[in-house]
């Protein structure tokens, strides 16, 4: 199985973002962390892609998950 | 058929899980998430054993403690319905799964209260947020409204005055939060406070464009209404208990909390409740954890008597 490209749009203060990243790390999934509090371009990208302004947003090969949803993460990552 | 199902993964539910596992009860822990409200808590200085710990870290420790015992857990799905059966209870999840048990502990905690005004539902996640510490930074440089007058509203306002262009703090009552937090925001040059104002409507099509508020003293007159041009609305007006699943089965108080006695019994044989979802005074992590322990031990006694 080829590795999926995973991006996490997050803020440093958001507990669900921390849980999401920990979940990915615990499962050995590499991801790109985009801090939307600092990175204005990433913020705009997230809002455009997801049509909404809540974090975390997880992009797995172009498919989006809003919020820390373990069931969906497992399904989309094939865990 | 399980002997016991614990619903909820906050301090009460996780402590109950540890106690049930140690009693070798055939049990299932069902929860939408792990941690509950503790996740929102930044610094904790009153949970014994830790002089200072952050919410997510304390929850990781709780999780680790639960995992050292053999216990079945299903995390990720909320519970949609609870009903009584001849043998005990049936629990249905939002995903449509169904589980049976002889006894149930409800430890479902609380969730943020909504305004229930036009526009709110449609614009959720599109500028309307219930987690200021999560989503606040996304609104850097914008104008925002913080709704509420308690500690969480004041904390949101004090975070936002540092990064937003302008902050409006709108409270139905005089400010009720701690004076130390009021002092932190009251002199900010980019903050306006509207006391005794209610939110009438949140406007916007694809995202929040404004919020209409009304002076309570103006009565029915339209002249008391004012529109604030904001891109974000932070709703911080307290919490409500996640007690819907027991409505019609157990007794709720006027706040919607499940009424329990000092043994966590609801009055329905086999149905126990613990933590912030109950009428037990003081919503504290240490209290919820203690209540979870009590509920589990009482449930164990109940199962032995069957």
Summed up:
The complex is a heterodimer of chains A (about 80) and B (about 300). With about 80 residues, chain A is α+β, with helices and mostly antiparallel strands.
Overall description:
The complex is a heterodimer of chains A (79) and B (306). Chain A is of the alpha+beta class. Chain A has helices at 15-26, 40-50, 70-77; strands at residues 6-10, 32-35, 57-60, 63-66. Chain A has one domain (6-70): Glutaredoxin (3-Layer(aba) Sandwich), CATH 3.40.30. Helix content of chain A is 39%, strand content 22%. Chain A has a four-stranded mixed beta sheet, with helices on both faces. The relative contact order of chain A is 0.25. In chain B, helix 1 packs parallel to helix 6. Chain B folds into two domains: 2-112 and 240-305, 3-Layer(bba) Sandwich (FAD/NAD(P)-binding domain), CATH 3.50.50; 128-235, FAD/NAD(P)-binding domain (3-Layer(bba) Sandwich), CATH 3.50.50. With 306 residues, chain B is of the alpha/beta class. Chain B has helices spanning 11-22, 55-67, 132-135, 151-163, 179-185, 285-305, and strands spanning 2-7, 27-31, 43-44, 53-54, 72-75, 79-84, 89-93, 98-106, 110-112, 128-129, 143-147, 166-171, 191-195, 197-203, 210-215, 225-228, 232-235, 239-241, 271-273. The interface between A and B is medium-sized, with 25 and 29 residues.
Q: What is the chain-wise order of helices and strands of chain A?
A: EHEHEEH
Reported by name, the CATH topology of the largest domain in chain B is FAD/NAD(P)-binding domain
Shape of chain B: elongated
| Major sheet summary line of chain A | 4 strands, mixed
Please tell me the total number of domains of chain B: 2
Average pLDDT over all residues of chain A: 91
Count of extended strands of chain B: 19
The first-level CATH class name of the largest domain in chain B? Alpha Beta
Shape of chain A: globular
